Amino acid sequence: MVKLNFKKGDGILPAIAQDFKSGKVLMMAYMNSYAWRLTLQTGEAHYWSRTRGEIWHKGATSGNIQIVKEIIVDCDHDAILLKIKQLGGAACHLGYESCFHNKIDKDGKETITGKKIFDPEKVYKNEFA
Amino acid sequence: MVKLNFKKGDGILPAIAQDFKSGKVLMMAYMNSYAWRLTLQTGEAHYWSRTRGEIWHKGATSGNIQIVKEIIVDCDHDAILLKIKQLGGAACHLGYESCFHNKIDKDGKETITGKKIFDPEKVYKNEFA
Question: How much is the ipTM here?
Fold first, then answer.
């Protein structure tokens, strides 16, 4: 059984979610050991929400669940890569396919790329997930 | 000029390095605001080494510099995605193409995937970068 170095990240480790087909990086969140265990057990991505201080079953509110196809851990056992199938087509709570949609040029200027898949106001109704 | 939320990560934010052609996730490290500025200014990935407590110009020792092709920031401005060209063909200090080379199955069993591109003992000579 693999042991992750949760101590290194004060109890939480970064987890990257990448589309298992396109290779697009969709989001980055954090897992504590319980979220890690739930992810392994259920085959659906669970994170630790630092903002809300609770386990976050991604998609529980929006239906945009992440089906885990492959899990890869890095050389130091302190970062996690999930290759996932993103239900609903959008990982970002703002409705974009990917949370990584702010392109930065050499001068630090920001341009939004990618298009909205859904309208977050209709999906979340004052909730967040 | 984009403002990153360095406060959210106590001064450092996670940065993912992804091969700009294959889409393979190569490594994850951290940047403080100075590493971020150096990365923008030089077009080469700079990180903050938490272990060594210093700026880490990736590849300075090994020659395995990361040429930045594109920078994308996430919706919350607290995570960075670098699309890079990895000189030397290997991002991992253990000599693998990617730091993410430990595949985890459903039972938590770990299998090393990917092959070594270089022998770290010959490259680093007791150093690390």
Answer: 0.94
